[in-house]
User: Fold this.
Amino acid sequence: MSSEEVTESQQVAKELTLVVELPKVLNAGDNLHIPSNYEEDLNDLRQSLLILPVSKNLTNYNLFIQNVNVSETFDALTPFSVIIEQLDLQIESELKITVKEKPYTLASVYDQITRFREVIGLHYIDRITEDNVASRGATAFNTLSLNEINENKVEEEGETKEDQSKVEISEQELSHLAQISDEICQISDNSNFHPTFDNVSDKLRIPIKSLTISQWSPVPTFQKNKGDLLYLTLQSLEGEIFHITCHYSGFFVNKSSSTNFNPDLKVLEKGKFFKHFLLYNLIDQVSPLFSKTIDENEIRLSSTSEHPETYLLPQNATLATPWIVDVKSISHQPDLSRSQLPLISNGVDGSDYVKDWNEDIQSIRDLPTSTIQERVVRDKLIQKSLHDFTKIATETAINIVNGNLTPMNPNEEPERHIYLKNGIFYSSSATTADVYAETGADEAARYVASKDLAGVKAMNRADIRGVHNLATTVVDYLGRRIICQAPVPGIFTQNVNENEDDEKVSYGLSTDGLKILEDKSFEEPLKSVAEVFHLKAHKVELDESTKSESELVVSKDTKGIKGSDGRKYVIDLFRTTPRDISFTEQNFDIANPETSYPHAESLIRHEAIAEWWKRKASALFKAETEKLEQEGDGQSSKDGEKPQIVLPTDQIVFNPDAFSGASESEDDQSGVRDISTFVKDHLIKEFLVEYPNELAPFDGTQLTESLHRKGVNLRYLGYIAEQALEESEEEEESKATIEQTVANYEVLYKLSVQEMIARASKHILRKLTSSLPPLLSPYVVAHFHNCLLGSKITDSPTIEIDQTLASFLPEENFAFTKLNTASIADLVQKEVYARFRYTLPIDWIDTSVRPAQLLREISIKFGIQWKAQDYVFTKEEFETVKESLAVKSQSIETSHSKKKGKKSKTVSVVEKVIERNSIFVVDDIVNFVPNVKDSSYKPSLLDDIFQGVRSHLSEDQRELGFTLLNELLSIHEQIFGRVNIETARLYPRIAQIYAELGEDKEAALISRKSAIIAERTSGYDSFDSINAFMNSGYYESATLNLTNSFKLYQHAINIWTSVYGKEHPALINTLTNLADNLFRAGLFTQATKLFEQALELSIKLNGKYSQISGVIYFRLATLLLQSSKFNEALDYYINAQDVLTKLLGPDDSLSKQADKYVGTLKTYQEYLKVQEQQKKKQLAEQAAASGNNKVRVKSNTETVTNGKKNGNSKKNNIPQPDPEIASKSIEDILNFIEGNQPKKNAKKASSAKKSKK
Assistant:
């Protein structure tokens, strides 16, 4: 659907106001008026009622329209337009709906309890407590203490923001700006091992002590007919204990106690009793502190942050995990009911826990998409289902690795165990290793699993109908890769008749690999798959007995299976891109595993195929166009329309099975080889050419993402590092560069090498831990890091193993303790060469490793959370901190003694303080985190709407553009929620639109939200967060709130200097921009310091003779000139003239300006010297005449004060530093220096001073 079609559909959606009559039990008073439209449904209304304060606790009700129970008559997703039509309602703009409570069932009681926990905040504590990582979704935004956003209004008509060269701010703000500026000048390369985050859970006070299912539950038989459903026990903040009966009519306090059972209504003196339809209202009646505490919580949250995004829980997103956490800030709150949550949330008989994930997800995919609202509902449900699937799959995968589940095949080797749990099939990548015995075994199987997921994700994004794939998640945890899939229905069902073939595959290579199956019913559905991936129909022949009769439309390895639900499924989508045959032939050698690339299954990325196809299609289009022009058919036809060009796209395809069969077409092999060389010869080459013009990455994650977007696999990192090093060395020799080429290539080289080392370390840790019990993993990780990063403290570290643990395990499990720095360095060097074809220098561990940054990279890749403390990497630093980092531990020791000839044994608990002999110990590891890849995707609908917004705004249809923009935000929030990584990526685009339209305040507000969500979803120190804070600082400066802007910039700078280091090229431009803002604020000294720091860094990174250094010389000279520091300005202008003339030539405008200012300032200096000599001569003559040789010689600045000349001669008209000179233009300053300032201007200045007084 195009952006124009989206706009049309949006305009068709007719507005509708829902007039909702609430139950009397809520005491709501007047009816609610909820804005809606004809395309929304009953489920949207229920969601609205959950949000509104008056109805947020209501869960058990029916909806009536004109006495018709539409809750039972219609599906929850039925649009109001259909309901109105089927009920034959004659309405225009208002629809009256009545909400009526209905009797509770046990299931609806559970729903009410769940909703109660959500409303009072217990669900927030539950999520934190049950999470398998610490401090997930941490944000530091509120620690910046930003001021409110200003309205930047232009005072005079016609004045633009660029005209506002002077910013009027208070003395207090000036002082604060100066302080922040000084702190920025003092930034260092030291990594921040003590990040500060908001901790919302500490600010919340739970309004009850506990609410649990009572010991008197379940309801006895003799009470069921009376309507009792469940019994609860409540302990209020006042310390009182209440026993509550959950009845079909509501909830009431009964007469039970901890020893006596009496579920009848408890009646107090004067006939008072406590009963209500809603649990929330009942507890509010019995506990005065209940509502008071909830109100206080709301006040605390609103005072803590004006942005709910800092603490909202995501609907369908997994929050980021910090690699370093403050264990002191992690609290664990008691809650007796938490252990009962599975009973409450999994249905009355626990059956809700057993879920058919495949049926749920496929049913949602089959929903209609003819309207915008249908597309929104479908996309929302798909994203929610995929997220829930990934969440459950990840939790189960962790339990599998930890040994908490029983496999389906317990007698096989542990790495080959498979599991079926809660409708999800789990297997290790090693289970298919035999299939790839000739191409890399385990390594190949592990790689193929991730590529299969990539194929699933690409197919989901394309939204192919008629054929289904499987919900898939890949979890890496403690060195093991677990593949989680919703199985094809009926895949595990065996045929009753033994004579029947038990083969489940209908299309593609059979399970045993001995035949090619060709069910013709799969051909048409799979053609859609082939079209999306540009696959060529082809015959397959593996040998004489294994070959296809007709052409396969997809790879032989891509299998079609008929599910027992009647749907057609396609699995094993890894072969939707071709082999990287050139790389494989050069680097895979099964006979030499020590030096060979780990496997021969290297595949091209989907992004590379898309770019290859686009270029081929463009070339075909050009050729067809030229052909039509040559034939004279390019002219318009009689009706004025030009003939359409139909591209033969069937020519732009590839054979996915090339180089995998016995008999193949040379053309097919040649086509795949061309794609393989396309990556290295075009994509990588273009990446390197374009690289200097782009922002250099800050860390390995950003580098990886940028390469993947270009379609470049990470196996080429070694080649990229070599090319970057060559480019930087060549540039260093010539120095004649316009962009930050030297600095950018240097960053690329350093990050590429660091990324290779980090990834090699991850694979080594994987190999060391995958076969060991999880309890040993902390010991392996700590010892590995001591060997790799603590080599300057000791090159032969030791690790102390807990003796109790050691007693349970065989001796061979502790082989890792024999590793030292030399052996680890050798392992890393071999792994880097094997995976990236790059040879590290001999002394790489000393020259190529930045310990703090590498620690972070390995932690993120392997999934480690370290304790927040000072990690040092030199002997000198270690000696100063090791006492403060001593570890306290408990151990059980047994002592033997002999008294009076009898032997006795004493067992005692001994507390020890263990001094460190290396920087890392087991106690430093807080947690291990799973690295999860899922099959979620971004729906195309959102991009269609965004393009519609852009289109209308570009055509000056501002009102319609803003309407669509608000609709986009609303739809995006419906699909992804307010806290989601996709939301964080959308907000910067929205902020840019607001800024372009002059809505600076809105741009600043939404950019703040972007920074918060980026922190929580991408990581507090991720590139997305750095970029979001930089953007936010920029938009704040547009509102002239420089204090806010500087705080945001400072935070971004602190993050990236910790992640990369101080010497990043982006810091140069950032410092100069900040200096400009300081100059506008009148803080000349601080502005000069930042310019000087930017210049120093530019010379270090780019060399003196680079344009950026020349420009900074020029800008700094101009600043000094406007600050009346003429001598210093001259020095910098001379350097600017030298650099710019050599790089740009003497005819460049900037070179000419520098030359002009140098000449003027030199003339001025000569003039001052002459004047000084004349003064000395005059004073000497006066002294000789008076006979007093001790007359003091006045300096030129003492002789001429306040712009007054000493004498009548024009030569004595010497201009002096003027406090108002900074507001003048450069030309005015030069006129001022030359002493020929127009009298008219002088009069104006004089009159202005008088009026000011």
The longest helix spans residues 1149-1186. Residues 893 and 908 are 6 Å apart (CA to CA). The mean pLDDT is 85. DSSP finds 42 helices and 24 strands in the chain.
